[in-house]
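Note to self: keep these together.
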Amino acid sequence: MPFVPFVVVLSSGDRDNVKTAHHADVQPVDERSGERPPWLIVYNERAVPRYLALVNIASIESAPA
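Structure:
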């Protein structure tokens, strides 16, 4: 299935575009504790990471065409 660009909308109203699969990162579950890190990492066009706390994500939207 091809990647579909999307927008992460935070409860603050901030919006982060995820243009390609390379612009987001979900860390694996910790092998010892079984816990998943509580954030999603998104990268801007200059590959600068932004850590988004999962509890602050209000919605995921389709990216504008």
